[in-house]
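R.M. (postdoc): so does anyone remember the format we settled on? I'll just put the structure tokens first.
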């Protein structure tokens, strides 16, 4: 890395220290959690600023005007005092708690919106995506795009080619959980494959969209994979040769979680049922399921 880049990166950390809530978590990586209409227990989404000569804002999410003003102030200071040059607003996926400020900031800052084609198609009636990205593309100078479907069809993770960090979006969370909803394009098979792909790259730190930086990502990714497989085993154990509706399975499969979140759990239960059917272990008749063996 050139000396000029290093000096600019150091100035970025100094600028972040002047802004309440902003955290410099690695060279030219700043996290600013801002309020969004996300699912509890999370109340904020991490706005990630990746800096240098080709800077981007990842997940401009907050619809709150005051929060947007805080983000714009940080961007302005990084441009003026750290020499960062912003080139776009990058969306990890289409969910509302990741895109709520995209249109407003695109207009105010004259920045293009960047996203995967499947994200762009789901936002076509709300947000204009100016630049499409796909697996293997490079953004912000050194960050490789990983297409990681499962939670959302167009979900992407950014992997630092020069370091070992990841900007993980909604692949994992430091607070709350991750929903895989087939009605929204979610796929349990794809989600598990994406988790395994991230684990194989052995990141040394990981920034989720919700919550603080994860400094032991190998353990967290392993837990997410094991947790999903254990939950799926409970789904299979709850089925026999009788046809059963998903609602009848909830008390057995998700009896360890508060009833308040059962409507959300039902979405992931559907994803597990579909995944088991794809493996030839169960079959479906209209809205009911049964075990094949």
């Amino acid at each position: 890395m050139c000396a000029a880049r290093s000096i600019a990166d150091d100035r970025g950390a100094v600028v972040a220290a002047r802004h309440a809530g902003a955290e410099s978590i690695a060279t030219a990586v700043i996290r600013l959690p801002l309020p969004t209409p996300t699912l509890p227990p999370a109340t904020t989404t991490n706005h990630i600023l990746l800096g240098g000569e080709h800077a981007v804002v990842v997940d401009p999410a907050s619809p709150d005007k005051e929060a947007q003003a805080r983000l714009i102030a940080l961007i302005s200071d990084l441009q003026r005092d750290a020499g960062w040059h912003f080139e776009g607003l990058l969306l990890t996926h289409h969910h509302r708690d990741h895109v709520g400020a995209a249109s407003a900031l695109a207009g105010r800052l004259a920045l293009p919106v960047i996203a995967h084609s499947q994200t762009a198609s789901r936002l076509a009636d709300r947000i204009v995506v100016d630049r499409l990205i796909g697996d293997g593309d490079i953004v912000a100078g050194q960050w490789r795009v990983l297409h990681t479907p499962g939670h959302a069809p167009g979900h992407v993770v950014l992997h630092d080619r020069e370091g070992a960090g990841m900007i993980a979006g909604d692949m994992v969370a430091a607070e709350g959980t991750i929903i895989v909803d087939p009605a929204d394009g979610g796929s349990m098979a794809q989600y598990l494959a994406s988790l395994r792909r991230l684990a194989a790259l052995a990141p040394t730190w990981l920034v989720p969209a919700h919550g603080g930086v994860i400094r032991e990502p190998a353990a967290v990714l392993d837990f997410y994979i094991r947790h999903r497989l254990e939950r799926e085993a409970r789904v299979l154990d709850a089925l026999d040769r009788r046809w059963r509706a998903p609602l009848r399975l909830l008390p057995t499969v998700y009896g360890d979680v508060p009833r308040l979140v059962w409507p959300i759990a039902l979405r992931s239960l559907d994803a597990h049922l579909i995944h088991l059917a794809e493996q030839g272990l169960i079959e479906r008749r209209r809205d009911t399921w049964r075990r094949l063996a």
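R.M.: ...and that's the designed sequence above, right after the tokens. Also worth knowing: The chain has two domains: 3-215, 238-291. Residues 217-237 form the longest helix (21 residues).
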